[in-house]
Amino acid sequence: MFSLVSATLPLSAVDDYGQITLAQQISQLPGIAQVQVFGSQKFAVRVQVDPVSAALAVSRSTMSDLRYQDQLQHACRTVAGARQNTILTATAAMRSAAEYRELVIAYRNGQPVKLKEIANVVDGGENDRTANLYNNERSIVLAVFKQPDANTVKIVDSIYERLPTYRAQIPASVKMELPG
């Protein structure tokens, strides 16, 4: 089992290193059946709308305005409101909260209403309701499962032998710990 934590990188970036860099390589070692990732946090843009906020009332935009805009098509996102969540679609080319903030979601009195005027738009994780903790820090954990007929000692030795290579492939700001 490996634990990955970082004091400086977002958990979604740590998740990428765990899933893409480490889990794929470890799963290819002889005797490994599977590497499961716990605490996974895929990157996502989070849009938090308060339907009764002053900004929303002034613009007279509604959750329906947000949902059906032509500019918001092709990639699913969730808008969290006080009373409901709505799935939005937006272009796959948009990859950060800063880009989403500038989206024109409606026109009122000939003036554009941008998403940032009615919502808090932040970079975050796909699911902010789950977490994995290691030593009281949010972490990504890689659990290694062996094949039924594999030799556990050989697998552990093989992983420890490759640890310097694995550590060299991730940033120094990501701590890789093996509980022991």
Please outline what is shown here.
The chain contains six helices and twelve strands. It is 30% helix and 34% strand.
Features:
four-stranded antiparallel beta sheet, 180 residues, alpha+beta, 30% helix, Alpha-Beta Plaits, Multidrug efflux transporter AcrB TolC docking domain, DN and DC subdomains
Describe the structure.
This protein is of the alpha+beta class and about 180 residues long. It has 2 domains: about 1-40 and about 130-175, Alpha-Beta Plaits; about 45-125, Multidrug efflux transporter AcrB TolC docking domain, DN and DC subdomains. It is about 30% helix and about 35% strand. It contains 6 helices and 12 strands. The strands form 4 sheets. It has a 4-stranded antiparallel β-sheet with strand order 2-11-1-12. Strand 6 and strand 7 form a beta hairpin. The longest helix is centred in the first third of the chain and has 17 residues, at about 10-25. It is elongated. The termini are close together. Mean pLDDT is about 80; it is low at about 65-75.
Quick one: how many beta strands? 12
Strand line-up across the major sheet:
2-11-1-12
Largest sheet: 4 strands, antiparallel
The CATH topology of the largest domain comes to Alpha-Beta Plaits
Known CATH architecture of the largest domain: 2-Layer Sandwich
